[in-house]
Amino acid sequence: MEVLAEELGKFVPYVGGAEFAHCLLVPLESLAVVEETAVREKAVDSLCTIGEAMPVDALNEHFWPLVRRLVEGEWFTSRVSACSLFKVCYGRMPAATKEEMRKQYKKLTEDDAPMVRRAAAQQLGKFAAVVEPQVLTSDIMAFFQHICDDQQDSVRLLAVDNFATIGKLLSQEDCVSKILPIVASFSQDKSWRVRYMVALQLYEVCECVSADVVKEEMLPAYVRLLRDIEAEVRIASAGKVSKFCQLVGADASVSSILPCIKDLASDSSQHVRAALANVIMGLAPVLGKTLPIEQLLPL
Predict the structure, then answer these.
(1) How far apart are CA 283 and CA 225, in angstroms?
(2) I need a surface site. Which of 33, 40, 211, 228 has the fewest CB within 10 A?
(3) CA atoms of 182 and 178, how far apart (whole Å)
(4) pLDDT (tens digit, 9 = 90+) per residue, 211-233?
């Protein structure tokens, strides 16, 4: 079934072209609800390929009704598959249909099944990339906030992947007011897995705003992650030390980050020390102009 799901996405030329591509939707819809994850993923990929090739009228007549049926499906597998399909057709739908699509996506972010909410969180950034600017700052940010407030850490950690993606779509002012407070909060999340994801993504988020904002808003969060009680979080944070120092500059690095680096250099976890060792030479261009070489060599 996995091979069938993959190959059907290549069949558009063999059914008469994009005008008749909708005939491939029926078998793929059946494959998109099966229990086997690999089959569903291939079916969804094929549906995306076919949807992008379909003309607008066919999208409205055939593709969107399919997505709606998946959203309303009894089994969580169909709703998981539906999350990946909104981005394909939203941009070419009429205004009334777009409003309905946003309502349906909202349902997915509030679904009783954590698996569905995880899928909605994972696909939110891709959906955000195709909506109108006013929708991004209203509906999408509301969905994003709801996902960030989820009780399941497996949902919240997937929300972290959207920080930089959505941040780049927002104005800097909106990013500072809407994204950075969530990032700062997540850096203190009760789940170490969420903090670990923040440590991995923090630098990309900081690239969305100015260096002054980073020093004021994000530097304290990064220092917390460098001093986190979980070694996995410290490992992820240590791997970003050079990039972060380059971003905030020598003065902020010396006053806030260098003390943490010295602690990490003698960390009880060899994996933390190894992560720091991999990037430590990148500090020389930043700190070498500020600190005497004899202060850097012990690191």
Answers:
(1) 18
(2) 211
(3) 7
(4) 889 988 899 999 999 999 999 99
